[in-house]
Design brief:
The structure holds two protein chains of two kinds. By secondary structure, chain A is an alpha/beta fold. Chain A has helices at 17-30, 80-85, 100-109; strands spanning 3-8, 34-39, 75-79, 96-98, 112-115. In chain A, helix 1 (17-30) links the parallel strand 1 and strand 2 (34-39). Chain A starts with a strand and ends with a strand. Chain B has helices spanning 15-27, 58-69, 77-82, 99-108, and strands at 2-7, 31-37, 72-76, 94-97, 111-114. Classes of the chains: A alpha/beta, B alpha/beta. Chain A binds chain B through residues 1-2, 4, 16-17, 20, 23-24, 27-28, 30-31, 33, 111-116, and chain B through 6, 8, 38-40, 78-79, 82, 98-100, 102-103, 106-107, 112, 114.
Chain lengths: 116, 115
């Protein structure tokens, strides 16, 4: 079994990529693989609390993040610099805040790194 | 070494880079187990792509690549469905597949490159 690190860099509603990235993570985890998520850049916006997208335009897929552990995903990281760039917003979950050194260590530690 | 490639960009973006990498790997005696087309990469598998004659048809190049090197091209079925790619308009050499197949391929590979 390999360890996957999926780096989420997409803003939630700019395109379908953020949603598809989450789906990819859940699908890989469903095959009993070790999956961790790292939110970075505009990707941190996926975790903002109180999202209310227009239901005609977007599915509020980010609600699934509150239940990640149900899918066996317990290692969730967020980039410290990206958080600061967005003025430390309120988040719906509290991932482990990591600096660039730690991010480098994560990328080295995981077998497979997929950026979305 | 065994490589698995994951192509996330459409045929109109930088997916020639993926083919160049695949060709280089083969040239250097590495083995490419499979190439997966995820997200916008799925657009590449549309058999109806009809490029102007003076522009490269990346989709067709992938079909020829798959045949020449006997490498499996797998399009993620979830990505494909969202983009109107299905069994009826799947270009030659492409196969619809699941994330399970991606996981299997990643498991066997020494390196996975996503681009």
């Amino acid at each position: 079994m390999k360890k996957y690190l999926i780096i989420m860099q997409q803003a939630p509603y700019e395109s379908s990529l953020a949603l598809e990235g989450l789906e990819l993570a859940l699908a890989i985890a469903a095959f009993n693989q070790d999956v961790a998520l790292l939110f970075k850049g505009p990707g941190v916006l996926q975790l903002l609390s109180n999202q209310k997208p227009n239901p005609l335009e977007h599915k509020e897929f980010t609600k699934a993040y509150a239940g990640l552990s149900l899918f066996g995903i317990t290692d969730v990281y967020i980039c410290q610099n990206s958080l600061a760039a967005y003025h430390n917003p309120d988040l719906m979950i509290q991932p482990q805040v990591v600096d660039n050194l730690k991010i480098a260590a994560l990328i080295k530690d995981y077998d497979i790194v997929l950026t979305v | 070494m065994l490589y698995t490639l994951v192509v996330k960009s459409s045929h109109l973006n930088n997916n020639p880079d993926a083919m160049a990498l695949a060709l280089d790997l083969i040239h250097h005696k590495h083995q490419v187990t499979a190439i997966f087309f995820l997200f916008d990469g799925a657009y590449t598998a549309n058999a109806f792509i009809d490029m102007p004659t003076d522009e490269p048809n990346i989709s067709q190049q992938w079909s020829e690549f798959a045949q020449a090197h006997d490498i499996r091209l797998v399009v993620c079925s979830a990505s494909a469905a969202r983009r109107g790619i299905c069994a009826t308009n799947l270009a030659r050499g492409f196969n619809l597949g699941s994330i399970g197949e991606l996981v299997e391929s990643c498991d066997a590979a020494d390196r996975v490159v996503s681009l």
